[in-house]
Amino acid sequence: MDKAMTRRSFLKTGSLVIAAATVANSTELFNASQVYGSAEMPFKPHAFLEIRADDTVVVWVGQTNLGQGTHTGLAMVIADELDASWGNVQVKMALAADPFKDPVWHAQLTGGSTSFRHRWDLLRSVGAAARQMLLEAAAQQWGLNAGECKASEGKIIHPDGRSLRYGQLVETAGKRAVPVNPQLKNPAAHTIIGTQKARLDIPDKVQGKTVYGFDFTLPGMCVAVVARPPRYGAVPEAYNADAAMAVKGVIKVIPLEERIAVCAENTYAAMRGRNALDLKWSEGSHPNLSDEMIAAVFTDSLKKKGADAGKKGGVDQALATASQTLQQEYSLPYLSHGQVEPINCTAHVEKDRCRIWIPTQMQTATQMTASSLTGLPIENVEVMTLPAGGGFGLRGEQDPVVDSVLLSQALDRPVKVIWTREDDFIHGYFRPANRSRVQAGLDEHGQIICWDHTIAAPSVMSRVMPHAVVDGIDPDAVSGVSDMVYTFANHAVHYVMVNLPVTVGWWRSVGFSSNIFAVESFMDELAHAAGKDPVLFRLAHMEKGSRSYDVLALLAEKGGWNTPVPAGRARGVAVSACFESFAAHMAEVSVGENGNVKVHRVVCALDCGTAIYPDAIKAQAEAGVVMGLSAAFHEQVSFAKGGVKTANYDDYPVLTMSDVPEVEVFIAKNDFKAGGVGEPVLPSVAPAVANAIFKASGIRLRELPFRKDLLKQG
Amino acid sequence: MFALTVNGTRQQVDVAPDTPLLWVLRDNLGITSVKYSCGIAECGMCTVLIDGTARRSCVVPIEEVDGSAITTIEGLPDDHPVKIAWIEKQVPQCGYCQPGIMLQTVDFLSRVPHPSETEINNAMDDVICRCGSHPRIRKAIRMAAKITASQGG
Question: ipTM surpassing 0.85, yes or no?
Answer without folding.
Answer: yes
